[in-house]
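Field: COMPLEX_INPUT
Field: COMPONENT_COUNT = two
Field: RESIDUE_TOTAL = 802
Field: MODE = joint
Values follow.
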Amino acid sequence: MYEFTAPFQQPAGSPIRELFKYLGEPGMISFAGGYPASDLFDVEGLDAAATRAYQAPAQCLQYGPTDGLPSLKAQLVQLMARRGVSCAPDEMLVTTGSQQGLDLILRVLVGPGDLVLTEQPAYPATLQALRLQQAKVVTIAVDRDGLDVAHLANLLASGEVSRPRLLYTVPTFANPTGATLTRERRIALLKLAVQYRFLIVEDDPYGDLRFSGEPIPSILALTSEVAGSRDWVVHFSSLSKIVAPGLRVGWTIAPAAITRRCVIAKQTVDLCSAPWTQAIAAEYLADGALERHVPTIVAAYREKNHALCRALRAALGECIEFHAPSGGMFVWARIQGLDAAALLARAIEQKVIFVPGNAFFADKADASSLRLSFAAPDVPAIEEGVRRLKRAYDAAVGTSV
Amino acid sequence: MYEFTAPFQQPAGSPIRELFKYLGEPGMISFAGGYPASDLFDVEGLDAAATRAYQAPAQCLQYGPTDGLPSLKAQLVQLMARRGVSCAPDEMLVTTGSQQGLDLILRVLVGPGDLVLTEQPAYPATLQALRLQQAKVVTIAVDRDGLDVAHLANLLASGEVSRPRLLYTVPTFANPTGATLTRERRIALLKLAVQYRFLIVEDDPYGDLRFSGEPIPSILALTSEVAGSRDWVVHFSSLSKIVAPGLRVGWTIAPAAITRRCVIAKQTVDLCSAPWTQAIAAEYLADGALERHVPTIVAAYREKNHALCRALRAALGECIEFHAPSGGMFVWARIQGLDAAALLARAIEQKVIFVPGNAFFADKADASSLRLSFAAPDVPAIEEGVRRLKRAYDAAVGTSV
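Field: COMPLEX_OUTPUT
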């Protein structure tokens, strides 16, 4: 047999995907997935877009440009303009979900041993990608206002952290914490990036999914307020959470020199993302369907979030601690008196699952933390799921038979 | 500005993609692309498959399993059975074109400085991928019967080549040479792989496109004839050349332990290839449309290949040397008396392009070589293109005003 060498000698699969085996069980209620709600997909609108796209079948069926179909890029440039960002086509690369953008960026910018900063808790696939590149990872804690930028400033000023290549963050409705970085912290972070010459890698799949409070511009949009900062921001976004993941349409906006290197890497990686679904996405956006449909998703997630937070407070009261998010798909919580992994074991018996927080830490994991996604289940399922969680909690702490 | 470090300090883009800028020129005839003929796509059959696939919209629109939609994998297992290969689902991974299979395999198997063998001339993206992984590359020459396996055996026996991790080859209708490895050499290569414990990475996108001669089983299919060899073969295939590249559906068949590592890497790379086009591909295959349609492509390529070879002999006679291929999309030739790059400069003036052979060499390039693809142009364009090539040749060697 083939003998593997590092880093694949002992591969660690996604701890979240490990939970997928429970999804098929009859009656299981899942707060575990990071999937958007299937019943909120704009099935008819996408069908119509697909029909229009196939009126130019060769564009759907032939290879496309590595950086993305021009028709789609033109629509995405307009979408970014509506989000307050002006960008040129040569700064933009269409990717197979924003996930591929992160992979490409890390491949062209980060070598073994390079210092990379990431918020923590963080998206597990990011942590896995950093391991794959054998980066040296330093974590920066997140509080309810997002990344602790003041702490980062101290680390940089003291020299405790020196010459990082980049910092990864999901500043708006973060996965897993649901937290949103304040405007003040965004500006401060941009100033640090300019001063210490590191890239801010802003992952923004959820930004349109705000269901309460005032919008805050993306870090990329705020570069106009900090001189020289545009050179230091890489921005990912995606249609996965606002249209459909099955399109696998994400995009990266970066300084042209970085984008060019990503395009060259992508020639080697997969030549191009599926032109057929790119063409469908272009038609969908050109029709204005996105703007018409997003409010439907936002209204549904507002209601589901409210249901989850209300039910958690009613059922678990002081035994659980969390901040209700202003958007996105996730509630991040800490459970009192036991580990989330122990709670999960009991929860599975009760036919409800969530993701224990350990999965989101590169170091110093908070074993009491857990992530609950309200996106997929409907309100009655959310309420029943929390009742089951309560029974699981009682069983785990021994206050119930 | 961000300062890049190796290996992306001086990125080398694809030399073939450099030629794309000429494709848009009015009246340009291209023998340069590796694209299949757009006018041979089964537009109606794929439209019907898309309609059937969308009857289960959530499967098209939601995230799918990282290793591929089960419905597609079931069809691909059947397709491989028709090609004489028995494989289990856990040996198979669906990828974004077979290109991604190569990228994943190299990422999980090859580290900086690892010794990798490749046929030469070779597919340029493979050479670029090996550079990206910083592999140490040793090339093995190809003759009209494919890879020179006897020479490889000598290198291994003498210790001149020691402990390679893997060998990359396109054994059937190779890109760029059009050559097909003989059955005897395939068996000999499998024995070497077992003896010296290296993986044969068999890239097989063109195998179904035979227009003359007797079929030869793939290297993977022949593992049944060499004890222990199945552990040492990784096989890529794709729908890009026999259905449509725009689906971006390729697949990898490898020992389960290797496949598992590729799946984990793919979780990080892009989570999954586009489920929507996977679902369309599954419906297309389930309908038997592939078997009905491939003969149409083969008949067209037979005629185009014949037209190109006949025209080249008639126009250039002794000034060009080539072997007519038995399938695939490419004629590999050597031009007498000048470099192919010099010919290309004159050819562009005459509004015809091809790929100079240099692009396909990692070392010791044969400057007189060139690759001509007959797949995309129709027969009249092929004949006119060769007339232009003749004028370019005459201009370049100075026998014409």
